[in-house]
TrEMBL record:
Binds 1 Fe cation per subunit. Its EC number is 4.4.1.21. The gene is luxS. This is S-ribosylhomocysteine lyase. Involved in the synthesis of autoinducer 2 (AI-2) which is secreted by bacteria and is used to communicate both the cell density and the metabolic potential of the environment. The regulation of gene expression in response to changes in cell density is called quorum sensing. Catalyzes the transformation of S-ribosylhomocysteine (RHC) to homocysteine (HC) and 4,5-dihydroxy-2,3-pentadione (DPD). Fe cation binds at H76, H80, C143. InterPro entries: LuxS_sf (IPR037005), Metalloenz_LuxS/M16 (IPR011249), S-ribosylhomocysteinase (IPR003815).
Length: 173
């Protein structure tokens, strides 16, 4: 079953009801984090601009919320690697950003709504991470915290996420 296709315009998309909490402006605050099962990739939102361009934001959840998290040096390096290497596979990437909770990334694409292609893009990018010999822009001139990196840690995260590739479409436990 592919949870991804639940409509983003009703509560089913957000998962099981969260009646005890008011509706929030931030989509992820309306997601019941106790009901999801990482790893997964889900559409977190679509924003359409005045000229019709659409930004599709995906929740790439690597770690189980409130149970585990990525260590900052590994997460930081994976961010650099994915941000750089993903653009070798698509010119639709707008941004790849780590979640503050350190459990995943947001992946934003413009005018690209093919979920299976997004999964393929992430798979190719993570395989590139496994082949990387260095972290791009890992220096004080190009990075705000150049001392906080771990190429091997990033590879370990990528390897673990790729090992569960068949689970990426199943969001809820």
């Amino acid at each position: 079953m592919r949870d991804f296709y639940a409509s983003p315009f009703n509560n089913e998309f957000r998962g099981p009801a969260m009646n005890e909490h008011p509706q929030m402006n931030v989509e992820s605050f309306n997601l019941d984090h106790t009901k999801v099962k990482a790893p997964y990739v889900r559409l977190a939102g679509i924003k359409v601009g005045d000229n019709g361009d659409a930004i599709h934001k995906y929740d790439m959840r690597i770690c189980q919320p409130n149970r585990e998290h990525m260590e900052m040096p590994a997460l930081h390096s994976l961010e650099h690697l994915m941000a750089e290497l993903s653009r070798n596979h698509s010119d639709k990437i707008v941004d790849i950003s780590p979640m503050g909770c350190q459990t995943g990334f947001y992946v934003a694409l413009i005018n690209h709504d093919d979920y299976d292609d997004v999964l393929s893009l992430l798979e190719k990018t993570l395989n590139d991470v496994l082949d990387a010999n260095e972290v791009p822009a890992c220096n004080e001139m190009q990075c705000g915290w150049a001392a906080s990196h771990s190429l091997e840690g990033a590879k370990d995260i990528a390897r673990g996420f790729l090992a569960k590739r068949d689970e990426w479409t199943q969001v809820f436990a």
